[in-house]
Amino acid sequence: MRLEYLVLGILMLISLFSVKRSLGQSMRWGYILLSFALKILAGFFFVHVYTEIYGGGELTADAGRFMAESKAIFEMHAVSPSTFWSVILNLPSLASETPELLANIPHWVADDAALLNDSQNVLRWNALLHFISGGNIIFHTLFFATLTFVASVDLLQFLSKRSTIPVWILFFLCTLLPSIAFWGANMLKEPFVFIGICVLIRGVFDTLNWKRRLWRIALGFSLMVMFKPYVLVALLVGIVFYFLSQKLLPSISTWKKLLVFSFSGIVIFIASGVHRPFTQIISKQQEDFINVRDGGIYLYSESDSIYHLYEGNIPNVEIFDEVLLVNKKTTVSSFVPEKRYQIKYITLQPGEEFTIKHNLGRSGSGIKVLPIDNDIVNMIRMVPMNLINVLLRPLPTDPGNWLKHLSFLENVLLITISTLTFLFRRKRIDIQSKHLILGMGLFLFILIQFIGWTTPVLGAIVRYKAPALFGWVIIVAIVFDWNQFLSRLNGSEKAINKV
Protein backbone atom coordinates (compact mmCIF):
# COMPACT_ATOMS: atom_id res chain seq x y z
CA MET A 1 0.00 0.00 0.00
CA ARG A 2 1.28 3.46 -0.88
CA LEU A 3 2.26 5.59 2.10
CA GLU A 4 -0.11 8.49 1.34
CA TYR A 5 -3.18 6.23 1.26
CA LEU A 6 -2.16 4.54 4.51
CA VAL A 7 -1.74 7.91 6.23
CA LEU A 8 -5.02 9.16 4.76
CA GLY A 9 -6.89 6.04 5.90
CA ILE A 10 -5.54 6.38 9.45
CA LEU A 11 -6.47 10.09 9.51
CA MET A 12 -10.01 9.30 8.34
CA LEU A 13 -10.51 6.56 10.94
CA ILE A 14 -9.21 8.75 13.76
CA SER A 15 -11.44 11.61 12.59
CA LEU A 16 -14.57 9.47 12.37
CA PHE A 17 -14.10 7.98 15.83
CA SER A 18 -13.31 11.45 17.19
CA VAL A 19 -16.54 12.81 15.72
CA LYS A 20 -18.57 9.91 17.13
CA ARG A 21 -16.98 10.36 20.55
CA SER A 22 -17.77 14.09 20.49
CA LEU A 23 -21.40 13.62 19.49
CA GLY A 24 -22.08 10.50 21.54
CA GLN A 25 -25.59 9.09 21.43
CA SER A 26 -26.99 12.22 19.76
CA MET A 27 -25.73 11.04 16.37
CA ARG A 28 -25.94 7.57 14.84
CA TRP A 29 -23.00 6.02 13.06
CA GLY A 30 -25.09 5.80 9.90
CA TYR A 31 -25.55 9.57 9.68
CA ILE A 32 -21.86 10.20 10.39
CA LEU A 33 -20.71 7.75 7.72
CA LEU A 34 -23.22 9.03 5.17
CA SER A 35 -22.23 12.65 5.74
CA PHE A 36 -18.52 11.83 5.56
CA ALA A 37 -19.00 9.80 2.38
CA LEU A 38 -20.81 12.72 0.75
CA LYS A 39 -18.04 15.05 1.87
CA ILE A 40 -15.48 12.77 0.19
CA LEU A 41 -17.61 12.68 -2.96
CA ALA A 42 -17.58 16.48 -2.93
CA GLY A 43 -13.78 16.29 -2.98
CA PHE A 44 -13.84 13.98 -6.01
CA PHE A 45 -16.33 16.31 -7.69
CA PHE A 46 -13.97 19.23 -7.08
CA VAL A 47 -11.12 17.35 -8.77
CA HIS A 48 -13.46 16.43 -11.65
CA VAL A 49 -14.54 20.06 -12.13
CA TYR A 50 -11.02 21.46 -12.09
CA THR A 51 -9.65 18.63 -14.23
CA GLU A 52 -12.30 17.68 -16.78
CA ILE A 53 -14.44 20.82 -17.01
CA TYR A 54 -11.84 23.56 -16.62
CA GLY A 55 -8.66 21.66 -17.42
CA GLY A 56 -9.34 19.34 -20.35
CA GLY A 57 -8.00 16.34 -18.45
CA GLU A 58 -5.39 18.14 -16.34
CA LEU A 59 -5.82 19.87 -12.98
CA THR A 60 -5.99 23.58 -13.77
CA ALA A 61 -7.00 27.06 -12.54
CA ASP A 62 -6.01 27.90 -8.94
CA ALA A 63 -5.97 24.24 -7.87
CA GLY A 64 -3.56 23.21 -10.61
CA ARG A 65 -1.30 26.22 -10.10
CA PHE A 66 -1.10 25.76 -6.33
CA MET A 67 -0.26 22.08 -6.73
CA ALA A 68 2.39 22.73 -9.39
CA GLU A 69 3.97 25.62 -7.49
CA SER A 70 3.93 23.83 -4.12
CA LYS A 71 5.67 20.92 -5.86
CA ALA A 72 8.33 23.32 -7.15
CA ILE A 73 8.91 24.55 -3.59
CA PHE A 74 9.01 20.98 -2.28
CA GLU A 75 11.65 20.08 -4.87
CA MET A 76 13.91 22.78 -3.42
CA HIS A 77 14.45 20.40 -0.51
CA ALA A 78 16.45 18.05 -2.74
CA VAL A 79 18.60 20.95 -4.00
CA SER A 80 19.05 22.83 -0.72
CA PRO A 81 17.23 21.82 2.48
CA SER A 82 18.23 25.07 4.17
CA THR A 83 16.64 27.09 1.38
CA PHE A 84 13.48 24.99 1.53
CA TRP A 85 13.05 25.52 5.27
CA SER A 86 13.86 29.21 4.98
CA VAL A 87 10.98 29.51 2.51
CA ILE A 88 8.61 27.47 4.69
CA LEU A 89 9.52 29.37 7.87
CA ASN A 90 9.84 32.73 6.12
CA LEU A 91 13.49 33.38 6.95
CA PRO A 92 14.49 36.14 4.48
CA SER A 93 18.20 35.93 5.25
CA LEU A 94 18.33 32.48 3.69
CA ALA A 95 15.54 32.66 1.12
CA SER A 96 16.95 35.85 -0.42
CA GLU A 97 20.15 34.03 -1.35
CA THR A 98 18.35 31.91 -3.95
CA PRO A 99 15.73 34.16 -5.61
CA GLU A 100 16.15 32.27 -8.88
CA LEU A 101 14.46 29.23 -7.29
CA LEU A 102 11.39 31.31 -6.51
CA ALA A 103 11.34 33.40 -9.69
CA ASN A 104 9.18 30.91 -11.62
CA ILE A 105 6.54 30.59 -8.90
CA PRO A 106 3.93 33.26 -9.76
CA HIS A 107 1.92 33.00 -6.52
CA TRP A 108 5.12 33.53 -4.57
CA VAL A 109 6.64 36.48 -6.41
CA ALA A 110 3.33 38.35 -6.83
CA ASP A 111 3.93 40.11 -3.48
CA ASP A 112 6.59 40.37 -0.82
CA ALA A 113 7.21 37.13 1.07
CA ALA A 114 5.32 37.46 4.33
CA LEU A 115 3.30 35.27 6.63
CA LEU A 116 0.24 37.40 5.86
CA ASN A 117 0.41 36.52 2.16
CA ASP A 118 -2.42 33.99 1.84
CA SER A 119 -1.22 32.49 -1.46
CA GLN A 120 2.25 31.89 -0.09
CA ASN A 121 0.78 30.22 2.98
CA VAL A 122 -1.26 27.85 0.81
CA LEU A 123 1.95 26.97 -1.02
CA ARG A 124 3.80 26.41 2.26
CA TRP A 125 1.26 23.94 3.65
CA ASN A 126 0.83 22.04 0.41
CA ALA A 127 4.61 21.86 -0.02
CA LEU A 128 4.87 20.24 3.42
CA LEU A 129 2.17 17.72 2.50
CA HIS A 130 4.24 16.69 -0.52
CA PHE A 131 6.54 14.80 1.89
CA ILE A 132 3.66 12.38 2.43
CA SER A 133 1.57 12.72 -0.72
CA GLY A 134 4.29 12.62 -3.34
CA GLY A 135 2.15 15.10 -5.28
CA ASN A 136 -0.99 12.93 -5.20
CA ILE A 137 -3.86 15.34 -5.87
CA ILE A 138 -6.45 13.05 -4.29
CA PHE A 139 -4.49 12.96 -1.04
CA HIS A 140 -4.40 16.76 -0.75
CA THR A 141 -8.10 17.00 -1.57
CA LEU A 142 -9.30 14.35 0.89
CA PHE A 143 -6.86 15.43 3.59
CA PHE A 144 -8.46 18.86 3.77
CA ALA A 145 -11.96 17.44 3.28
CA THR A 146 -11.42 15.36 6.42
CA LEU A 147 -10.10 18.28 8.47
CA THR A 148 -12.99 20.59 7.50
CA PHE A 149 -15.44 17.80 8.32
CA VAL A 150 -14.06 17.57 11.87
CA ALA A 151 -14.03 21.37 12.26
CA SER A 152 -17.67 21.60 11.15
CA VAL A 153 -18.59 19.09 13.84
CA ASP A 154 -16.83 21.32 16.38
CA LEU A 155 -19.18 24.15 15.40
CA LEU A 156 -22.12 21.72 15.57
CA GLN A 157 -21.39 20.96 19.23
CA PHE A 158 -21.85 24.65 20.03
CA LEU A 159 -25.02 25.04 17.96
CA SER A 160 -26.74 21.94 19.35
CA LYS A 161 -26.88 23.63 22.78
CA ARG A 162 -28.77 26.64 21.43
CA SER A 163 -31.08 25.12 18.81
CA THR A 164 -34.39 23.26 18.76
CA ILE A 165 -33.49 21.68 15.42
CA PRO A 166 -32.60 17.95 15.65
CA VAL A 167 -28.86 17.34 15.83
CA TRP A 168 -28.81 15.22 12.67
CA ILE A 169 -30.26 18.11 10.62
CA LEU A 170 -27.78 20.58 12.11
CA PHE A 171 -25.09 18.03 11.31
CA PHE A 172 -25.95 18.05 7.62
CA LEU A 173 -26.28 21.85 7.55
CA CYS A 174 -22.81 22.29 9.05
CA THR A 175 -21.09 19.74 6.83
CA LEU A 176 -23.03 19.32 3.61
CA LEU A 177 -24.43 22.60 2.38
CA PRO A 178 -23.17 22.44 -1.23
CA SER A 179 -20.69 25.30 -1.00
CA ILE A 180 -19.37 24.16 2.38
CA ALA A 181 -18.90 20.61 1.12
CA PHE A 182 -17.36 21.61 -2.24
CA TRP A 183 -15.07 24.46 -1.20
CA GLY A 184 -14.03 22.67 1.97
CA ALA A 185 -12.65 19.70 0.02
CA ASN A 186 -9.62 20.99 -1.87
CA MET A 187 -6.08 22.33 -1.53
CA LEU A 188 -7.01 26.04 -1.79
CA LYS A 189 -7.50 28.71 0.90
CA GLU A 190 -11.10 27.90 1.81
CA PRO A 191 -10.46 24.78 3.94
CA PHE A 192 -8.13 26.77 6.21
CA VAL A 193 -10.73 29.53 6.51
CA PHE A 194 -13.54 27.06 7.25
CA ILE A 195 -11.50 25.43 10.00
CA GLY A 196 -10.61 28.86 11.38
CA ILE A 197 -14.20 30.09 11.46
CA CYS A 198 -15.57 26.95 13.12
CA VAL A 199 -13.03 26.70 15.92
CA LEU A 200 -12.86 30.46 16.50
CA ILE A 201 -16.63 30.78 16.86
CA ARG A 202 -16.78 27.90 19.31
CA GLY A 203 -13.79 29.22 21.25
CA VAL A 204 -15.32 32.70 21.55
CA PHE A 205 -18.97 31.87 22.22
CA ASP A 206 -19.17 28.40 23.81
CA THR A 207 -19.03 27.72 27.55
CA LEU A 208 -15.79 25.75 27.68
CA ASN A 209 -12.92 25.79 30.16
CA TRP A 210 -10.22 28.36 29.43
CA LYS A 211 -7.74 25.88 27.93
CA ARG A 212 -10.23 24.50 25.42
CA ARG A 213 -11.28 28.02 24.50
CA LEU A 214 -7.76 29.41 24.26
CA TRP A 215 -6.38 26.92 21.73
CA ARG A 216 -9.46 27.31 19.55
CA ILE A 217 -9.25 31.10 19.58
CA ALA A 218 -5.50 31.02 18.87
CA LEU A 219 -5.83 28.48 16.04
CA GLY A 220 -8.90 30.07 14.48
CA PHE A 221 -7.49 33.60 14.63
CA SER A 222 -4.15 32.51 13.18
CA LEU A 223 -5.68 30.59 10.27
CA MET A 224 -7.98 33.44 9.32
CA VAL A 225 -5.19 36.03 9.52
CA MET A 226 -2.96 33.87 7.33
CA PHE A 227 -5.53 32.88 4.72
CA LYS A 228 -8.40 35.41 4.47
CA PRO A 229 -7.93 38.43 6.74
CA TYR A 230 -10.95 40.27 5.32
CA VAL A 231 -13.24 37.44 6.51
CA LEU A 232 -11.71 37.81 9.97
CA VAL A 233 -12.35 41.57 9.90
CA ALA A 234 -16.03 40.98 9.12
CA LEU A 235 -16.31 38.32 11.84
CA LEU A 236 -14.53 40.51 14.43
CA VAL A 237 -17.12 43.25 13.91
CA GLY A 238 -19.83 40.76 14.86
CA ILE A 239 -17.82 39.52 17.85
CA VAL A 240 -17.16 43.06 19.13
CA PHE A 241 -20.88 43.87 18.85
CA TYR A 242 -21.75 40.72 20.81
CA PHE A 243 -19.50 41.57 23.76
CA LEU A 244 -20.23 45.31 23.82
CA SER A 245 -23.95 44.55 23.78
CA GLN A 246 -23.51 42.43 26.91
CA LYS A 247 -21.81 45.25 28.80
CA LEU A 248 -23.16 48.53 27.45
CA LEU A 249 -26.63 50.08 27.41
CA PRO A 250 -28.40 47.18 29.18
CA SER A 251 -31.68 49.10 29.39
CA ILE A 252 -32.32 49.47 25.63
CA SER A 253 -33.54 46.88 23.16
CA THR A 254 -31.19 44.71 21.12
CA TRP A 255 -32.17 46.40 17.86
CA LYS A 256 -31.43 49.84 19.33
CA LYS A 257 -28.03 48.53 20.45
CA LEU A 258 -27.37 47.50 16.85
CA LEU A 259 -28.30 50.98 15.60
CA VAL A 260 -26.10 52.69 18.20
CA PHE A 261 -23.20 50.34 17.45
CA SER A 262 -23.51 50.78 13.68
CA PHE A 263 -23.85 54.57 13.85
CA SER A 264 -20.90 54.89 16.26
CA GLY A 265 -18.76 52.63 14.07
CA ILE A 266 -19.51 54.68 10.95
CA VAL A 267 -18.73 57.96 12.74
CA ILE A 268 -15.41 56.60 14.04
CA PHE A 269 -14.59 55.14 10.62
CA ILE A 270 -15.11 58.53 8.90
CA ALA A 271 -13.74 60.83 11.63
CA SER A 272 -10.52 58.84 12.05
CA GLY A 273 -9.75 59.10 8.33
CA VAL A 274 -9.50 55.31 8.00
CA HIS A 275 -12.08 55.47 5.21
CA ARG A 276 -9.53 57.05 2.83
CA PRO A 277 -6.94 54.23 2.69
CA PHE A 278 -9.76 51.68 3.02
CA THR A 279 -11.52 53.11 -0.04
CA GLN A 280 -8.22 53.15 -1.95
CA ILE A 281 -7.51 49.50 -1.14
CA ILE A 282 -11.03 48.33 -2.04
CA SER A 283 -10.95 50.39 -5.25
CA LYS A 284 -7.66 48.83 -6.33
CA GLN A 285 -8.92 45.35 -5.50
CA GLN A 286 -11.99 46.01 -7.63
CA GLU A 287 -9.85 47.31 -10.50
CA ASP A 288 -7.66 44.20 -10.34
CA PHE A 289 -10.76 42.02 -10.58
CA ILE A 290 -12.25 44.09 -13.38
CA ASN A 291 -9.00 43.43 -15.24
CA VAL A 292 -9.49 39.70 -14.61
CA ARG A 293 -13.08 39.98 -15.83
CA ASP A 294 -12.16 41.87 -18.99
CA GLY A 295 -8.86 40.15 -19.67
CA GLY A 296 -5.78 41.90 -21.00
CA ILE A 297 -2.02 41.65 -21.07
CA TYR A 298 0.45 42.29 -18.25
CA LEU A 299 3.91 43.48 -19.32
CA TYR A 300 7.30 43.73 -17.72
CA SER A 301 8.84 47.20 -17.95
CA GLU A 302 12.43 48.46 -17.72
CA SER A 303 11.61 49.78 -14.26
CA ASP A 304 10.11 47.81 -11.39
CA SER A 305 6.59 48.57 -12.65
CA ILE A 306 4.14 46.22 -14.28
CA TYR A 307 2.05 47.53 -17.18
CA HIS A 308 -1.50 46.35 -17.83
CA LEU A 309 -2.84 46.65 -21.36
CA TYR A 310 -6.63 46.49 -21.45
CA GLU A 311 -8.25 44.05 -23.84
CA GLY A 312 -9.87 46.91 -25.80
CA ASN A 313 -6.42 48.26 -26.68
CA ILE A 314 -5.01 44.97 -27.96
CA PRO A 315 -5.71 45.97 -31.64
CA ASN A 316 -3.04 48.68 -31.15
CA VAL A 317 -0.28 46.11 -30.64
CA GLU A 318 1.20 42.95 -32.16
CA ILE A 319 2.17 39.85 -30.21
CA PHE A 320 5.07 37.59 -31.16
CA ASP A 321 5.29 34.64 -28.73
CA GLU A 322 6.21 36.36 -25.44
CA VAL A 323 7.02 39.76 -26.93
CA LEU A 324 4.59 42.63 -27.49
CA LEU A 325 5.23 45.34 -30.11
CA VAL A 326 3.34 48.66 -29.91
CA ASN A 327 1.96 49.86 -33.28
CA LYS A 328 -0.13 52.84 -32.12
CA LYS A 329 -0.11 55.12 -29.09
CA THR A 330 -1.70 53.08 -26.32
CA THR A 331 -2.63 53.88 -22.71
CA VAL A 332 -1.79 51.33 -20.01
CA SER A 333 -2.05 51.29 -16.24
CA SER A 334 1.22 51.04 -14.33
CA PHE A 335 1.85 49.79 -10.82
CA VAL A 336 4.69 48.46 -8.68
CA PRO A 337 3.86 45.02 -7.19
CA GLU A 338 4.93 46.10 -3.69
CA LYS A 339 2.65 49.17 -3.96
CA ARG A 340 -0.14 47.66 -5.99
CA TYR A 341 -2.76 50.07 -4.63
CA GLN A 342 -0.96 53.04 -6.19
CA ILE A 343 -1.51 53.11 -9.93
CA LYS A 344 -0.93 55.64 -12.68
CA TYR A 345 -1.61 55.73 -16.40
CA ILE A 346 1.07 56.15 -19.05
CA THR A 347 1.16 56.14 -22.84
CA LEU A 348 3.22 53.62 -24.80
CA GLN A 349 4.75 54.86 -28.03
CA PRO A 350 4.85 53.08 -31.43
CA GLY A 351 7.90 50.86 -31.81
CA GLU A 352 8.31 50.04 -28.11
CA GLU A 353 8.70 46.36 -27.20
CA PHE A 354 7.86 44.61 -23.96
CA THR A 355 8.07 41.10 -22.54
CA ILE A 356 4.66 39.61 -21.70
CA LYS A 357 4.10 38.54 -18.09
CA HIS A 358 0.50 37.30 -18.42
CA ASN A 359 -1.97 37.19 -21.30
CA LEU A 360 -5.45 36.75 -19.85
CA GLY A 361 -8.69 36.02 -21.68
CA ARG A 362 -12.07 37.50 -20.74
CA SER A 363 -13.89 35.83 -17.84
CA GLY A 364 -16.89 33.73 -18.83
CA SER A 365 -19.04 34.85 -15.87
CA GLY A 366 -18.25 38.54 -15.61
CA ILE A 367 -20.93 41.05 -14.62
CA LYS A 368 -21.11 44.84 -14.76
CA VAL A 369 -20.51 46.74 -11.53
CA LEU A 370 -20.20 50.41 -10.65
CA PRO A 371 -16.49 51.40 -10.67
CA ILE A 372 -15.49 52.70 -7.22
CA ASP A 373 -12.72 54.94 -8.58
CA ASN A 374 -11.45 55.79 -5.06
CA ASP A 375 -14.81 57.36 -4.14
CA ILE A 376 -16.55 56.20 -0.95
CA VAL A 377 -19.86 57.59 -2.28
CA ASN A 378 -19.71 54.99 -5.07
CA MET A 379 -19.16 52.28 -2.44
CA ILE A 380 -22.30 53.42 -0.62
CA ARG A 381 -24.26 53.43 -3.88
CA MET A 382 -23.17 49.82 -4.50
CA VAL A 383 -24.55 48.45 -1.21
CA PRO A 384 -28.01 47.37 -2.48
CA MET A 385 -26.65 45.82 -5.67
CA ASN A 386 -23.98 43.99 -3.66
CA LEU A 387 -26.74 42.26 -1.72
CA ILE A 388 -28.43 41.18 -4.95
CA ASN A 389 -25.24 40.03 -6.67
CA VAL A 390 -23.93 38.02 -3.73
CA LEU A 391 -27.16 36.66 -2.26
CA LEU A 392 -29.22 35.94 -5.39
CA ARG A 393 -26.85 35.41 -8.31
CA PRO A 394 -25.97 33.56 -10.44
CA LEU A 395 -29.36 33.36 -12.13
CA PRO A 396 -30.10 30.93 -14.98
CA THR A 397 -29.87 33.85 -17.43
CA ASP A 398 -26.46 35.02 -16.17
CA PRO A 399 -23.26 34.32 -18.13
CA GLY A 400 -21.32 31.19 -17.24
CA ASN A 401 -21.28 27.44 -17.85
CA TRP A 402 -23.71 24.80 -16.54
CA LEU A 403 -22.22 24.94 -13.05
CA LYS A 404 -24.07 28.22 -12.49
CA HIS A 405 -27.32 26.20 -12.33
CA LEU A 406 -25.98 24.25 -9.34
CA SER A 407 -25.19 27.53 -7.59
CA PHE A 408 -28.64 28.85 -8.47
CA LEU A 409 -30.27 25.75 -6.95
CA GLU A 410 -28.21 26.23 -3.78
CA ASN A 411 -29.44 29.83 -3.57
CA VAL A 412 -33.01 28.59 -3.94
CA LEU A 413 -32.38 26.14 -1.07
CA LEU A 414 -30.91 28.88 1.16
CA ILE A 415 -33.78 31.27 0.41
CA THR A 416 -36.34 28.52 1.11
CA ILE A 417 -34.77 27.65 4.46
CA SER A 418 -34.47 31.36 5.33
CA THR A 419 -38.15 31.89 4.54
CA LEU A 420 -39.15 28.91 6.70
CA THR A 421 -36.95 30.24 9.49
CA PHE A 422 -38.75 33.60 9.36
CA LEU A 423 -42.20 31.97 9.28
CA PHE A 424 -41.41 29.52 12.11
CA ARG A 425 -39.16 31.73 14.22
CA ARG A 426 -38.87 31.27 17.96
CA LYS A 427 -41.00 33.65 20.00
CA ARG A 428 -38.69 33.68 22.99
CA ILE A 429 -34.93 33.90 22.57
CA ASP A 430 -32.57 34.71 25.44
CA ILE A 431 -30.71 38.01 25.29
CA GLN A 432 -27.28 36.44 24.62
CA SER A 433 -28.63 34.52 21.66
CA LYS A 434 -30.22 37.72 20.29
CA HIS A 435 -26.85 39.45 20.48
CA LEU A 436 -25.25 36.49 18.72
CA ILE A 437 -27.87 36.53 15.95
CA LEU A 438 -27.31 40.21 15.24
CA GLY A 439 -23.54 39.77 15.52
CA MET A 440 -23.65 37.07 12.85
CA GLY A 441 -25.95 39.32 10.81
CA LEU A 442 -23.28 42.03 10.90
CA PHE A 443 -20.68 39.46 9.86
CA LEU A 444 -22.80 38.42 6.89
CA PHE A 445 -23.60 41.98 5.82
CA ILE A 446 -20.01 43.21 5.95
CA LEU A 447 -18.59 40.14 4.23
CA ILE A 448 -21.21 40.43 1.48
CA GLN A 449 -20.21 44.07 0.96
CA PHE A 450 -16.50 43.21 0.77
CA ILE A 451 -17.27 40.61 -1.89
CA GLY A 452 -19.71 42.80 -3.82
CA TRP A 453 -17.38 45.80 -3.89
CA THR A 454 -14.40 43.90 -5.23
CA THR A 455 -15.71 40.98 -7.29
CA PRO A 456 -17.36 41.44 -10.72
CA VAL A 457 -17.10 37.72 -11.59
CA LEU A 458 -19.94 35.40 -10.56
CA GLY A 459 -17.75 32.30 -10.38
CA ALA A 460 -15.56 34.04 -7.82
CA ILE A 461 -18.56 35.39 -5.90
CA VAL A 462 -19.87 31.85 -5.43
CA ARG A 463 -16.52 30.81 -4.01
CA TYR A 464 -15.85 33.84 -1.83
CA LYS A 465 -19.25 33.86 -0.13
CA ALA A 466 -18.90 30.28 1.12
CA PRO A 467 -17.46 31.31 4.55
CA ALA A 468 -20.57 33.43 5.12
CA LEU A 469 -22.69 30.26 5.18
CA PHE A 470 -21.39 29.40 8.64
CA GLY A 471 -22.84 32.68 9.96
CA TRP A 472 -26.09 31.89 8.16
CA VAL A 473 -26.21 28.39 9.73
CA ILE A 474 -25.78 29.91 13.20
CA ILE A 475 -28.69 32.31 12.65
CA VAL A 476 -30.97 29.57 11.29
CA ALA A 477 -30.02 27.17 14.09
CA ILE A 478 -30.94 29.66 16.81
CA VAL A 479 -34.00 31.31 15.26
CA PHE A 480 -35.81 28.33 13.71
CA ASP A 481 -38.47 26.84 15.99
CA TRP A 482 -38.52 23.15 15.08
CA ASN A 483 -41.37 22.33 17.46
CA GLN A 484 -43.61 25.00 15.91
CA PHE A 485 -42.71 23.67 12.46
CA LEU A 486 -43.63 20.11 13.46
CA SER A 487 -46.91 21.26 14.99
CA ARG A 488 -47.85 22.99 11.76
CA LEU A 489 -46.96 19.87 9.76
CA ASN A 490 -48.97 17.63 12.05
CA GLY A 491 -51.92 20.01 11.86
CA SER A 492 -51.78 19.97 8.06
CA GLU A 493 -51.67 16.17 8.02
CA LYS A 494 -54.74 15.94 10.28
CA ALA A 495 -56.62 18.38 8.08
CA ILE A 496 -55.78 16.34 4.98
CA ASN A 497 -56.83 13.10 6.67
CA LYS A 498 -60.20 14.59 7.62
CA VAL A 499 -60.79 15.52 4.00
Oligomeric state: single chain
Strand content: 5-15%
Order of helices and strands: HHHHHHHHHHHHHHHHHEEEEEEEHHHHHH
Query: How many H/I helices?
Result: 23
Number of strands: 7
Which whole number gives the mean pLDDT? 88
Question: What features would you describe in this structure?
Answer:
This protein is an alpha+beta fold and 499 residues long. It has three domains: 3-199, no CATH class; 252-278 and 368-489, no CATH class; 296-360. The chain has helices at 3-23, 29-53, 61-74, 76-79, 81-88, 92-95, 99-102, 106-109, 118-133, 137-159, 167-176, 178-183, 190-205, 210-227, 229-247, 254-271, 275-294, 376-391, 403-423, 431-454, 458-464, 468-479, 482-498, and strands at 296-300, 306-310, 317-320, 323-326, 330-336, 339-348, 353-360. A seven-stranded antiparallel β-sheet has the order 3-4-7-1-2-5-6, covered by helices on one side. Strand 1 (296-300) and strand 2 form a beta hairpin. The N and C termini lie far apart (63 Å).
Short description:
Helices cover 66% and strands 9% of the residues. The chain has helices spanning 3-23, 29-53, 61-74, 76-79, 81-88, 92-95, 99-102, 106-109, 118-133, 137-159, 167-176, 178-183, 190-205, 210-227, 229-247, 254-271, 275-294, 376-391, 403-423, 431-454, 458-464, 468-479, 482-498, and strands at 296-300, 306-310, 317-320, 323-326, 330-336, 339-348, 353-360.
